[in-house]
Design brief:
Elements: H1 2-14, H2 23-33, H3 39-53, H4 58-75, H5 78-94, H6 98-114, H7 118-134, H8 138-154, H9 158-174, H10 178-195, H11 198-214, H12 218-235, H13 238-254, H14 258-274, H15 278-294, H16 298-315, H17 318-334, H18 338-355, H19 358-374, H20 378-395, H21 401-414, H22 418-435, H23 438-454, H24 458-475, H25 478-503, H26 508-616, H27 620-626, E1 630-635, E2 643-650, E3 653-661, H28 665-685, H29 691-706, E4 717-725, E5 730-736, E6 740-744, E7 747-751, E8 772-775, E9 780-785, E10 793-794, E11 799-800, H30 803-813, H31 818-833, E12 834-835, E13 838-839, E14 846-853
Antiparallel strand pairs: 1-14, 2-3, 3-4, 4-5, 5-8, 6-7, 6-9, 9-14, 10-11, 12-13
Length: 855
Amino acid sequence: MRRFLWLWLSFSFIQSISFSQNQATIDSLQSVLKTDISDRQKVDVYNLLAKEYRRSDSSLVARYTNEAIQLAKQIKYSAGVSDAWYFIAWVTMEKGHYSSALEFYKQALEIAQKHHYKKGVANALKGIGIIHRRKGDYADALEVIQQALEIFVQIKDEVGMGSSYNNLGIIYRRQGNYAKALVMYQQSLKLRKKLGDNKGIAGSYNNMAVIYTKQGRYAQALAMHKSSIEAREKTGDQRGLANSYNNLGIIYRKQGNYPRALEMYQRSLKLKEKIADKRGVARSYNNIGAIYDDQNLYAEALKMYQRSLKIKQELGDKRGVANSYYNMGRLYRLQGNYDLSLTMLKQSLKTTQQIGDKSGIAHSYLGLGHWALAQKKAGAAAEYFQKTLAVLQEIGQKDRLAQALTSLGIAYYLQKNYTEAQKYLEQGLQEGQKMGNPYTIRDGAEYLAKTYRTLGQTDKAYQQLELFKQMADSILSEKNIRQLTQLEERFASQKREDSLLAIQNKKEVALNAEIQTQKANRRTAIIGAILLGALLFVLGIFYRSKQRSNLQLNTANQELNLVNQELKNYNEELQIANENVQQANTKISSINQELKEQQEHIVDSINYAQRIQKAILPIEEKMKTTLPPHFILYRPLDIVSGDFYWFEALGDKQIIAAADCTGHGVPGAFMTMLGTQALNNIVVQNKIHSPDQILHHLDRVLHQLLQSETTQVEDGMDVVVCVIDKAEKVLHCAGAIHPLLLVQNGALREIKGDRYSINTYQKGRSMQFTKHTIDISQPTTFYMYSDGYQDQFGGEKGRKFMKTAFQNLLGQIALKPVDEQKQILENRLDDWMNYEGKQTKQIDDILVIGVQIQV
């Protein structure tokens, strides 16, 4: 470890960067050092000085932490040594040297744990979690930072709590869980406001703005970023300013304001280079590359992407590496290098799946879909885009929703499925216009025009064609390109001047006159160039305007002739159609009467099926007399249900099952009847009472029932089976996909089912299920359920109720009487589906069973 320390000390002196510090605090601390204080107090002051300098001068951090460690070791002050290692690790991490930083954090943690220094333990854990987060190891990061938060809460350290909530928010954001991320950021903001932490408040506003950007709420995001920048300018937070400028650039780019976006990225890059933020520099290179990419300047874009990738690989930044692979894969596709493009995109998907980055997974699927479109594989493209939509809707991410909808519409258009194409293109265009994304609007308008034209809706087609031209002109407008060039030249010139000043600082006085002369000459040259450029620009405008007018006139004439011909054809077709209307009306009346009679017959049949299904369900009176206190919430989607429950009491054992069959309505109901009959045969006739063996035999029986000589029906069911053994005071359970939820001593525990459904039996391969045994000698409540409740849409934003929210609700009500539990679940579901008068339809069968075992 000493070798690591001296390496870091040497690096710090070489890489030292100085900015304005909180001079009053520093002067005060240095004055305290000159007074007659104890050695322990001196160690604390050394560490406080290191803390003040950690964002500005790494050489002074090295000096003060070294003095703190040496003195603390002499007096055996372990907390002081741990704090010093923490600050060393922090500065090393901020420079992007994650491996060394991790070693330093572990050193701080080991010392703090050995000497029961709780704050030191929490700080070190938080630091380790941040490194995991930055490297894309989200599961590890979440676990470690939650441990840190628990300790901070225990010792009532509100500063540490605020920081931990903020870091948890960042992790949830990276995983695509935006709702939970906002909750964490709001918790952090609340604590920071209470403490008057202006710098922390600015950071919380910035992070919440990032969430709004992901959700496509750009107005709110811009307002919060600007408030954050104002706060950071007041506190002199250079790193925070760099991040805010970068995030503003992201919003401007999404809105198609490329000059403004590039200006923000360049401001951010300049600050990051100044403070040696390697990770931030990589991000800036990537974002500037994206601007070039958008403007079809592929060679420049590739250089930027490669610079960014190299730094990210050096840092071990997995999420950043995946993003670079995606960008390079997209660029190679646009250049026609499809093999290399596919390699990069698959690597991007693999990396995002490894780290559990849902937003990144959706992005990778989107890229693969566009690759398939370019290869004219519309069917494969549609599958990728559907996967993209599924992930985006799951995590509530709107900023790519418009692009995914539009892309899916294009895929359907190329498959000549014009009805579906129109549906998704209209949705995509609507979302794109909400967010002001010119690329999505352009692509959507282009293919919507083609779709309308194919469907004979010429007026709508012409409107979309005009919108397409408008968006295409705005993206590659001469004004945008000219402003981009000026900004890039200005930035490059500024970098050259900064470098020259740094090298020739001592010669400044002697060369001042010469520099002034050069500046005057340069101004003269610039003025001349501007005048010449203005003249050429005006001439270019007249020439381009004339060309555009001629082109538009020719196009309009061609389209007018086409419309006239189509109208003529349409009139002829209309005349023929009118002659057939009378015959069609007569035939329609006859068909309607037949349909009405058929519908009545079908409804009668389904109602009869409902009576049969009710008859085979367990008798409620039997369950009340033999099963412990329980409730059953049962809501079929249609008249008949694909969910069912089954019960049997045999001596000291009660066996209960809850199943969700493939489909709902009549097809699902037939499966429930087969499942019920199979369970009766297995449990009652064959006397098989172990839940894992019940599922094993159910799998085999259904396979036999559903196969014939020529076909194999793929339908099946997800089911959980429980056996209550009153004599042994144990509960046995096994699940096929579906879990069992258990509450004991106020603790909520999920017992997961095996990862395959019933009817996956294959010849020569018998499915084996896992039996779990739970001690029920203490009060126990358990729940069995299908996925209908948690998948139900509703609430303020029309989203799913979600598994976590459902399980948390069950945990909260577990100790209440079972009748009250059922009523709470019913009311919560009704409120969710009828939020503020906005009614949401039920989408699936719903089944929830709760059993309360009392000792």
